[in-house]
Amino acid sequence: MAHWRPVYAVLEREVVRMFRQRTRLVSAMVRPLIWLFVIGAGFGTVLQQSGGVSYQQFLVPGVLGMTMLFGAMLAALTMIYDKESGVMRMLIVAPFPHYWIVVAKMLAAALAAILQALLLLILLAALGYLDSQIRFGPLALGLLATSAACAGIGMLVAAFTRTLDNFAAIMNFVIFPVFFLSGSLYPVSHLPTALKIVALLNPYTYGVDLLKHAVLGVLPSGMGADFAISTNIAVLAGFTAAALVVASWRFSRESAYEPMIHILTGKRDG
Question: For the chain (length 270 residues), average pLDDT per consecutive 10?
């Protein structure tokens, strides 16, 4: 129980920080809406309506997933900021295992992703992109499981990165392939074989698919969900657990030993 107090403190700090950064919240809402209105309208005129679903409706689960992916990745960025500002060293010397820091940061990133997705859901409902056919059970599962997996991706990048510049470079290298090869913009079943294999290996694909269950359901045209809900949950839970273990191992190894080695050898952080 005592270990949950620092976890709660980290969660509270990250949520307060997110709501103070209003431009971050605005950009988190504007980015998916641009994709929905500009990309969706443009491709929609080319693809027309397929299987009773317009292309803009098909994009709704993808832009929800996009909000969580970018939100979780930017929340994970605070881990690098804390390393550079010295806050992380204060957490490291606190009397609890180092993996609790990763757990707290991962929960904070997932919570930030969920809050931003909820704000976007309100906007989408107001704009008429969500109807009464939406399934709230799969939607809740999709928000929880996808945000946790996205936080896991962010923690993996943060654990293997030392500086903010490196994190930004690696984030762009990771985030766009993860998003484009996920079924967010087109059905996975319609992809060429090589790209389809990559998409199947991408855990974020299953998060978007879970959101498709909530918003689109399974459609005979292939424009809906591709996998069973149980498959999506199993893949997302397995990836999140693996990401937590690897990030904790890497963080403990780096944070516990490298600063000491740098101090002894006089080497600066690179």
Answer: 72 79 79 83 67 80 92 84 75 74 88 92 89 85 94 88 76 85 86 90 94 83 83 96 91 60 48
**Amino acid symbol at 188:** V
CB 196 within 8 A of CB 188: yes
Q: What predicted TM-score, i.e. pTM, was given to this entire model?
A: 0.83
212 CB-contact burial (10 Å; exposed 0-12 / middle 13-18 / buried 19+)? buried
Cβ–Cβ < 8 Å for 117, 23 = no
Identity of the residue numbered 27: S
Give burial (CB, 10 Å; 0-12/13-18/19+) of 220: exposed
* Cβ atoms of residues 120 and 211 within 8 Å: no
CB count in 10 Å sphere of residue 3: 14
Q: Give the Cα separation of 135 and 63 in Å (integer).
A: 17
Which residue reads 């470079």 in tokens? 169
N- to C-terminal Cα separation, the chain: 37
